[in-house]
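USER: If only I could read backbone structure tokens as easily as an amino acid sequence. It would mean a lot if you studied the pair and described how this chain folds. Here is the record:
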Amino acid sequence: MEKLLTVTVPCYNSQAYMARAVESLLKGGERLELLIVDDGSTDETLHIAEEYAARYPGLVRAIHRENGGHGPAVMTGLHEAQGLYFKVVDSDDWVEEEALKKLLDALEEMKRSGSCADLVVTNYLYDHGENGKRKLIAYRSTVPAGRIITWDEVGRFHPGSYFLMHAITYCTELVKNSGLTLPEHTFYVDNIYAYVPMAQVKTLYYLDVDLYHYCIGRPDQSVNEAVMLSRLDQQLRINRIMLSSVDPDRIENPRHREYILFYMEVITSATYAFLLQTGKKEDERQVLDFLSEIREKYPTAYRYLTSAPALRHPARAVTALPNRLSFPLVRIGYRAAQKLFGFN
């Protein structure tokens, strides 16, 4: 039986919490292939993965690799994937049982009809473990639900409504052939994952179910603000990789091209915002230097970043008004977005 969906769970020293992710995915049954990729853990992660593989042969595979970080673990899962579609679930997150079954039903129906979308989008929740708060990210006002569409039918995106990794289920063949490469020992590679294959997507299917719980709040998480501020060099590295990986001018559909530029704007704005949160003069200088770099190397992205009113996005104040007088606006905009969306 061909698997409809391969789910890769990258794990590094995940023994304390990986069971919730794995147990939630097991509810998918035999239509799903579950790859638990141990990224050189030093705790009992690999042992736990092997136990699951022994208990669920034909459904779970345990894969061990030397430590390379989240990106190479995802790439290992992608290389091994045999399912028609491919999804990544982080080891500290989990999925809803009924939503997972509906996703598999939708994939089965597309396979039966002989017409499969390049991308399937589902909703996700920011799940704050420390205070119990949840924030749903859905696409009801942007993407028509329940049928395969092209980018021509996709509406305008707004801050917070873009497709993060948690919302994405790619056609496996598409993502394997997309040229995706995720660097070793680098955080925030999920932004590359949500960007490079997206440039190849021509058809979409939005399934309006709340599938993915994106759990945040642990102090050691990469999205914790203090952690992110200590890794600004990696945020810049990811941003540069994205800028160099996709040429928006080669994307024919205007709505598709606009989304790619919009997502680039989101990531670039996040880079600016985090650099400016430190309050250091050298980081402020980096912001202006990076904008100059984009202007010189990536003129299409630069024109998009500077074309709309300065307050369209929190960091537009820097790109449209690139001087230090705009920096306080960015800091205020970032805090407002953080409160509204609860992203870290």
Remarks:
- Strands lie at 5-11, 32-39, 60-65, 85-88, 94-95, 119-128, 134-137, 148-150, 168-171, 203-216.
